[in-house]
Structure formats: C-alpha cells, structure tokens
Amino acid sequence: MPKSSEFKRRIRENICPRCGRPSEDGGLCGACRAAQLRWYSCPARVVSICCPGCGARKEAGLWVETEVPREELTNTLVKQAIVIIPEIHDPDITISIHDKSSNRSVADCRMSGTLFGEPVEGSCQIEIVWQKEQCDRCSRVSGSYYEGVVQVRATGRKPLPREIRNAERIAREVEEALISSGERLSFISEIEETRDGLDITIGSQRIGQEIATAIVRVMGGRYTTHPKLIGERAGKRLYRITYSVRLPKYTKGDIVMVHGRYGEVQSADGRDIRISDIRDGQQRSVPEQKVGALVGNVRDAAEYLVTFREGDTIGVLDPGTGESTECRIPPGMRAEPGDRVRILRTADELLLLG
Fold first, then answer.
1. Which of 29, 116, 271, 350 is the most buried (most CB within 10 A)?
2. What is the pLDDT of residues 182-227, one digit of tens each?
3. In the beta sheet, which residues pair with residue 258?
4. What angle do CA 128, 130, 135 make, to 5 degrees?
5. CA–centroid distance for 163 within its chain
6. What is the pTM of this model?
C-alpha cells in the first residue's frame, strides 16, 4: 500500500467520530468524553440540626459537641454534600453563601477541574435548612433526669468552706474532661450546699464514680456506693446510686496534739494521719484515734515581728494588739530581731510554726 494511503488511513482512524477533532485512539476525544459524563452532583438541600440550648449538632443520628462558627459550618456542610468523581484532577470548589431567613441559607457553588485532559466547570445551588432540636443532654437536664448523687461529708465535723469550694471545683473539672472526651450524658445537673456538706446531682453513674474518686484522691478520705433500684427498662434493672464521700476528720495543715507534742497534718485517709512534728520536723504516721486534740490550722497563723532573741527565747510583736510577748523557739529554727515568723495562738500559748 502506498505511503500516502497509509497516512490517510491513520488520520481517519485518529479522528473523533463525534466532533471530528483529533483523537488518540480513534474513539471519542477528551472534550466529547467529558461532555457526556456527569462528573459532579449536588443535592437540592442540606439539613443541619442543632440544639438551641448547648449548640451541639446532630450527625448521623448522634449528637456531637461543636464550637464551629456558622459560616465555617455552612462551608463544611456544602462541601461534604457535593460529590465529584475520582477521575477529576485538581478539583476546586468555590462557595458563596447568603441567608434567606433565620433558618434558611443558600449556597451558590462553582466547581472546576480537569477531566480527560480537558478543563471542566460546573455550578449548582444548595439550600441549607437550619433546624432546632433539643439534644439528649439538654432534654435530660430540663426533665430533671439524674442517675445518682455525690454526697460530700466529713467525719465528725462539717466540711470547711474551703473544702466545699475545692470539692465543687474538682467536680466541675471532671465534668468538663468527660464531656470533652465525648461523654455527653456525664453532666452535673445541680450542686447544692447543705447543712451537712455538699450534694452533687449527676446525670450518669460514670461521672459519679469519677467525681467521688477524684475528691478522695485530692482531699483524702474514702467513699462508698449505695445503689437504689428504681425500675426496669428492656429487662434491665435501673439503679440510682448515692456516692457517699467521707472526708477525713483532720485535713492537711491542721495542727494537732499527739502524745503531748504538736504536729502538722500532712495527709489523712480516714484511718491514719501523717504528721510533721512542729519542734523537730520529723514525720510519722499515727492512727487517727491517737490524736489528743485539734489545736487549729496553719491558715489561722499570723505573722509576728521578732523584737529580740535570748537563747531559745524570742520576743514577738502581736500584729493585732501591738503587745510584745515572749515564746520559745524550736531547736534549729532561725529567728533574729527584725525577722517575721508565723505563730498560731492557742488557748494556752503561742505556737511558733516557722
């Protein structure tokens, strides 16, 4: 066959049968293939369900926490709704959003990319519907639902105001940590200071156990659980649990009398206490029942000015009355005229703490 005939045959074989433009294999060219392929799809509308109480959003039937601004959330919802086929190279989506009303927005979308070596463009419009629905947690809170109570009490005394504040702070920190980790129903519905201590009403048994454990770990003492059967659901027994937290009789910083010597409490677990001897600084553990008396707490100590020193006796100036008083200084403690020392006034003497 002559060369000219072969050349003409190859030209005919490499022409697109639809548009007549060059084709690599004699089939449809890239432009015609791209034109007949639906390379993107957009839904007519997207629905976003948010809780008006806490701002949580419903995704695939589950409530999730979100702090994303509405504009950013809208862009995410629209981009997730647009489907572009994998054959598109370098896809790009541009979104312009305007609000029609308080619960309706419209997104004008433009898509572009490369398909079969040809640039392609498309556009669509998506309506965003903003629905409000109370989430599972807010529904339980508003319905006064609870699964237990953490009761904070102290052995042989009423919890101190600082202990009440500390226990409440610990409970809030536990709640925040659990919710941040996805435990949405682990919430505190109420914290109430009572005549005997603190009551923390909780939405799940998980948070009740976590709060009780954390309070005991930080403040000492022990806790016990007391379940109460309240019914059944789907054949499963339902309980409400009281977590009874007992703070130790003595707390860190208490000054106690043990075997005729003063000691500062370092820790307590409800059975034993660890004290640091005021005179020599030595630490030891003693059973709680061995404590002779509670003298006070280091927080009650005041700063006194040292006016003179003679051997193991110092003169100090009372910051309240301005009177000069003498007291003995423990061995090894530094206290010179002009220094300030912490002193706890007991019923019988001035106790030099350092």
1. 29
2. 888 899 999 999 999 999 999 999 999 999 999 999 888 889 999 9
3. 261
4. 140
5. 22
6. 0.66
